[in-house]
């Protein structure tokens, strides 16, 4: 009889442990971005404020990545007005349209050599 009672208690304990070990399932939220829709997994135990913060963080991260990609894809050029003295420009029209960074002095020498 004690064996049955022990077995019965053990089965209750194992059921309780199983219930405690079972994790609630996460939610998936579709977040609209400029590039399209992104699915974000929200933990089931997250509050509304935590879920909103998580979605905002994901949107900010994606916006930062897009901005970084845009910066890398555009050629790096120096400020046009900082070059005006090097070129001896008198008007805005005298400034060259594009000069790659590192080529400023080479272009200044060419521009002064033409005068």
Automatic annotation (TrEMBL):
InterPro entries: PccX (IPR058335). Pfam families: DUF8022. Residues 1-35 are annotated as: Disordered. The lineage of its organism: Archaea, Methanobacteriati, Methanobacteriota, Stenosarchaea group, Halobacteria. Residues 14-24 have a biased composition (Acidic residues). Residues 1-13 have a biased composition (Basic and acidic residues). It comes from Halomarina ordinaria. Coiled coil: none annotated. Residues 25-35 have a biased composition (Polar residues). This is Acc operon protein.
